[in-house]
Each structure stands twice: as C-alpha cells, then as structure tokens.
Write a structure and sequence with these properties.
This protein is of the alpha/beta class. The chain folds into two domains: 56 residues, Winged helix-like DNA-binding domain superfamily/Winged helix DNA-binding domain (Arc Repressor Mutant, subunit A, Orthogonal Bundle); 188 residues, Rossmann fold (3-Layer(aba) Sandwich), CATH 3.40.50.1360. The chain is 39% helix and 25% strand. It is elongated.
Length: 257
C-alpha cells in the first residue's frame, strides 16, 4: 500500500497531467477508500495545491485570465485552423449562423472568407473583426450585435443585444471558450461575454464549441453552460482519453480535427 506522501504525489501528478481528478477513480486506482482520498485532498487543499469541487479536485493553477486577442491568436494556431476547417463543413449555403468572439471562431470566419466566398449566409456576431471580414463578401449579411466594445476581445457586449437575439433563430452557434471543465462546463473570462453567449445559445438550434485541447481542464470566471447543453465540440487530437470519455458520457458529439 502506498504511503501518504506517495498518494499525494500520485494525486498531484494526475492533476498536473489532466487538470482534474475524480475521487472515486483515484480510490479505485490506489485501492483505498474514498474517505482516505477525501482526507488526502483536504490536506492538499489546505496547502493551496488544489481545490475540491463536487467529488473531484482541480489544480489551483487551472483558472484562466483574460488575454488579448492578439496573444490568443498566436497560441496553437495550426490546431485552430484545423478546427476551423472541420467547423466549415457544418456551414451550409443559405444558412443563418452565430459566431462568438474568439481567436478560433475568427479562424472559422477566415475559412468562410477564403474557402467559401460565394456561400450565402446570415451571420450574427458581437465580434467586430468577424463583422468587418465577412462584410467583404457579397452574399453574406452581417448582423452586428451592439454594446460596449471590450478592448481585449474586440467583442461588443451589453443588455441591448438581448432584445435583438429574442427576434432571431439561427441553425448553429459557433462558440469559442476559454475553458472546458467536467464540473463547470464551458466558461469564459468575463461575465458579460458569458451572459451574451447564453442568449446566443437560446437563439440557436445547436451549439458547436470550437476549442483547442489546451482549453480542457481550465475554467474561467464567467460560466456559460454545462457540457450537457453543448451539441458538438470540435478540438484537436491533444485531448486526453479520459476527457474524451467524459464528453461522450455527457452526450456531446466530439470531432477531432
């Protein structure tokens, strides 16, 4: 049987690899009771090394901060372009879609602009850069959601957008997120963006999350929805087998780009 120190190291190593651990799984893997693992996690939490949430533990280092769009666009760019190419397959001619703010969703807008310039679309977005880019296409009608422009995201968010969204129905909402977590669901770094994303989900027939694998196990300040509320997640092959299982068990279609 492992010593206390060995159990703690095992837990922290798994946290470092996956960003979260489940108490029941650690108990089974180490052959000890759940009570023992809960005590271990309580000790580690008191040292500031993790925090406990709903039968699991999260790394204290897995919360996110709000980054500017330029910084985000430079991270995992190849993966984002592959994700955008797969997302483009879900866009049909004469479609009506919503696109959130984000570097991966902007990659989708670039794919539409460059690969399907003749497609006829209605596009609803709070993202100024998407509006400017897709407005160049003759057959694309852009509905820009209004509000205060956030300097880091180039997104416009305010309560006035709620009224507009109440009068729209789109086939697909393509959403970029800052974190995907089994307990917290999909999250972003600001409350304003989370609220607008919730309204956009309500005005769409399906929600498609575009996120590279670095977003899994992270969580932001603004909670958008649970995993069960998402229809499809498109990501790259860096997502772990354990996370794939969790997503599938939540009834979400997972597409690997």
């Amino acid at each position: 049987m492992l010593s206390i120190a060995e159990r703690h190291k095992y837990i922290l190593d798994k946290l470092d690899k996956y960003g979260f651990v489940r108490i029941s799984e650690i108990s089974e893997e180490l052959g000890v009771t759940k009570v023992t693992i809960r005590k271990d996690i309580k000790i580690l939490e008191s040292r500031g090394l993790l925090y406990k949430v709903h039968g699991s533990a999260r790394s204290a280092a897995h919360s996110i901060i709000d980054r500017d769009l330029m910084t985000k666009s430079l991270l995992n760019r190849d993966a984002k372009q592959r994700i955008a190419s797969r997302a483009l397959e879900l866009v049909s001619d004469n479609d009506a879609i919503m696109i959130s703010a984000g570097s991966t969703t902007y990659a989708l807008a670039e794919a539409i602009h460059d690969k399907q310039p003749n497609v006829s679309l209605n596009v609803v977005t709070p993202f100024l850069k998407v509006s400017i880019l897709l407005n160049e296409l003759e057959n694309v009608c852009v509905e820009q959601l209004g509000g205060r422009v956030f300097k880091k995201s180039f997104g416009a968010f305010s309560g006035s957008a709620d009224f507009s969204l109440n009068n729209m129905v789109c086939s697909t909402f393509f959403i970029g997120v800052d974190g995907i977590d089994p307990d917290f669901g999909i999250t972003t770094s600001t409350i304003e963006e989370a609220h607008l994303s919730q309204k956009m989900m309500e005005s769409s027939l399906r929600t498609v999350v575009l996120a590279d694998s670095s977003k899994f196990g992270l969580h932001g300040f603004g909670r958008i929805a649970s995993l069960e509320d998402v229809d499809i997640i498109i990501t790259d092959d860096g997502v772990s087998a354990e996370m794939r299982k969790i997503i599938e068990e939540a009834g979400v279609e997972l597409i690997i780009a």
